[in-house]
Amino acid sequence: MAKVDTSLVAHLPLFAGLTPEALDEILREARSARYPKNSAIFEQGADAQSFFLLLHGHVRAAKTTPTGEQIVVRYVAPGETFGLAMAIGAARYPATATAVDDSVVLIWPTSAWPRLVERFPSLAANTLQTVGTRLQESHTRILEMSTQQVEQRVAHALLRLAKQSGKKLDHGIEIDFPISRQDIAQMTGTTLHTVSRILSGWESQGLVESGRQRIILRDPHGIVVLAERSADSGAA
Amino acid sequence: MAKVDTSLVAHLPLFAGLTPEALDEILREARSARYPKNSAIFEQGADAQSFFLLLHGHVRAAKTTPTGEQIVVRYVAPGETFGLAMAIGAARYPATATAVDDSVVLIWPTSAWPRLVERFPSLAANTLQTVGTRLQESHTRILEMSTQQVEQRVAHALLRLAKQSGKKLDHGIEIDFPISRQDIAQMTGTTLHTVSRILSGWESQGLVESGRQRIILRDPHGIVVLAERSADSGAA
DNA sequence: GTCGCGTTTTGCGCTATCGCAAACTATCGA
DNA sequence: TCGATAGTTTGCGATAGCGCAAAACGCGAC
């Protein structure tokens, strides 16, 4: 039985309102595992045999169409759960999860969920909360895709990433996991070409500093301005 | 205390796994109300004082940007819940709900939710299920918006509406509540002009019959074909 | 039955963004 | 150290769909 230190996870929203004993009991059902950078954690369409809690690293959840196009559903940050197919009554994973950095996760067998929820009802309530929040964010994303131009969507996406996983530097905020132009394109519903053009433009305005799979927001406020303006043009 | 007939709602997923007594207790906390066609049920940004279960009619949930653009988040069909802001820990409604037809709803005060969940944990589990399903659908919608052209998105939207609220006629399936071109545009991320053009096209191909705020799918299968083809052109 | 208003249709020019192709460049492995 | 490889940049033509405007139409009200 893998032993997990409760103090590391006790403060997570998922476990809010649980006694240390309860938490201990829940963690006893989990095992932990390490996934190296770029390895698959589960594939879209596979049997949902487990659900996960990310401890370290970063995970990308992506959905693929029958014709092979992909979108990034979200990036999972440490402390967040993913692969909750069972909670929504799905037998198969609706997306593919990939470690974008060396990652450590806790893994519960899906079969343990009903029992856990029965013993600890607040687990269901807490999960409802996070799923609800994700639904909100999803709607916001749809709203953006419907009403905003690509440049604004990219701006919003980067700001969100910075908020979720930004590492503060003295000369800006760095998104602290590898992310490609293609990834950003798949988050915003455009092509890597367009993303590249936009970032190049921003770079020449001093708004960002972006290299290979690496992005630093030099002037977050400037990007906020970009994200919020409604339709007119910017600097030449 | 408004009396509600339990037999009408006992089979709903929300109440799955509850005893008749429990259901009775839950319903005792609700009151019912009628909203005439085109009346507002709640406004985006207002205090989330209640949550709702639709008994009859149809409700549109729409989200508005600061600049006034709208999108339709979903259409609520009888038997579905809406206005669940509290379940996700939001104090205000994230969208506006409007009755698109004369509608009857059950209304619970938001303040009753924590107590109900504590007494009947399966409420939380059931709600998690439906919210999770909506999250899925949301992701599918994002995927469509990212990868498909407008015509296919409109096709998918109509097929979904037909599935959810279609009335079977001998010459097709009618969407049985009033819906405008503008509404469809707001569901698919386009303009009413484009929707109008598309429907006109389909009408001349005999795929649909569409009048003022009314749509009949004459050839659902033909529309499925449209929805699924990936990129090439159609008939002239 | 007629009038008026909200909805729908349609034309037309415009442009944001795609899609392809080619050049370029960090990074990693031998 | 030098390629090989994957990611990025950039140019350029093509086009789907927008946006504006005007006309036609259907429905409900009186």
TrEMBL record, chains A, B:
Question: GO CC annotation: what is one?
Answer: cytosol
Which residues does the UniProt record annotate as the domain HTH crp-type?
148-221
Its keywords, alphabetically, are: DNA-binding, Nitrogen fixation, Transcription, Transcription regulation
Q: Where is the signal peptide?
A: none
Q: Name one Pfam family in it.
A: HTH_Crp_2
Xref: InterPro entries: cNMP-bd_dom, cNMP-bd_dom_sf, Env_Response_Regulators, HTH_CRP, RmlC-like_jellyroll, WH-like_DNA-bd_sf, WH_DNA-bd_sf
Q: Residue ranges of the Cyclic nucleotide-binding domain?
A: 14-117
- Return the PROSITE patterns for the record: CNMP_BINDING_3 (PS50042), HTH_CRP_2 (PS51063)
Q: Write down the superkingdom of origin.
A: Bacteria
Q: Which GO terms describe its molecular function?
A: DNA binding; DNA-binding transcription factor activity
Protein name per its UniProtKB record: Crp/Fnr family transcriptional regulator
